[in-house]
Write a structure and sequence with these properties.
Helices cover 8% and strands 39% of the residues. The chain has three helices and 16 strands. The strands form six sheets. Strands 3, 6, 8 and 9 form a four-stranded antiparallel beta sheet that branches. It has a three-stranded antiparallel beta sheet with strand order 5-4-7, with no helix packed on it. Strands 12-15-16 form a three-stranded antiparallel beta sheet, with no helix packed on it.
């Protein structure tokens, strides 16, 4: 659906948050905007000012613009375009407390040639249809984890790529959603999942007594394997099929410790 327009400002961008996510405290919120490249424009060395406004409804029903943040960037030669981040923590936190005040944002960019490039396009990308939506502005939100955490004794081994440990051990493994083509994931773009690898000798203490008894009963059978001993969850912010921004907690996504079982 086409985005609504204010008479005096242009395109309004809406960022919807589910009720589940708005219960949390906003630690940080960044608005990412795609700035067009300088390959086809002669703007080398020029400065572009990006201004963000939130739409506010007045008492008489009229709509006004309230400044949120601004940033100035310098155009480099032969730039292919880039993402620019702007701090919108205060406005997102306000929306979380007062969802009805979320009437969208307006992003404006002005340069030496005004708000358009020599081809009549805006200096920033705000059209959902352009480039199949891959350059649509998005907000990345970091939330506070209010749950109490307790540190438990962890008998598992922690290793890295330089370790010479042959026993079952936890190794770093970074999962990058961009490499999977999962552009619907807003945050995190990548995270540390970790992986279990290494040998489990017959004398290794297994995770469950049942496994140890089976090994004793059938010594020629398959021995214990190096596997996750405990897993933890991650929080994810993503777009659903209707382009609504949702927040979910996914269990079993991070290896906390490894063991032979």
């Amino acid at each position: 659906q086409p985005l609504p327009k204010l008479r005096h400002s242009g395109r309004v961008l809406y960022f919807r948050f589910s009720n589940k996510i708005t219960r949390n405290k906003v630690i940080q919120a960044k608005l990412f905007v795609a700035v067009r490249g300088n390959i086809e424009m002669d703007l080398t060395g020029a400065h572009i000012a990006i201004n963000v406004f939130r739409v506010q409804r007045g008492r008489n029903g009229s709509e006004t613009l309230v400044p949120v943040t601004e940033k100035k960037i310098s155009m480099q030669s032969k730039t292919e375009g880039s993402w620019v981040s702007l701090d919108v923590q205060k406005v997102v936190a306000h929306w979380f407390h007062y969802p009805k005040d979320n009437m969208g944002l307006i992003i404006q960019a002005t340069g030496p040639t005004g708000s358009k490039d020599p081809f009549g396009r805006s200096l920033i990308v705000t059209d959902l249809e352009e480039e199949n939506g891959t350059l649509t502005p998005f907000i990345e939100v970091y939330l506070a984890d209010g749950r109490a955490k307790r540190t438990k004794r962890n008998p598992g081994l922690n290793c890295d790529e330089n370790s010479h440990e042959s026993r079952c051990c936890k190794y770093p493994l970074t999962v990058n959603f961009d490499k999977f083509g999962w552009d619907w994931v807003i945050s995190p773009r990548k995270y540390e999942a970790y992986i279990c690898s290494g040998e489990c000798t017959p004398m290794t203490l297994t995770m469950y007594p049942h496994t140890h008894l089976l090994q004793m009963a059938n010594p020629k059978g398959i021995g214990p394997c190096c596997a996750p001993r405990s897993l933890s969850e991650i929080s994810m912010i993503y777009y659903n099929s209707e382009l609504n921004i949702l927040f979910s907690t996914l269990p079993g996504m991070v290896v906390e410790s490894c063991g032979c079982s």
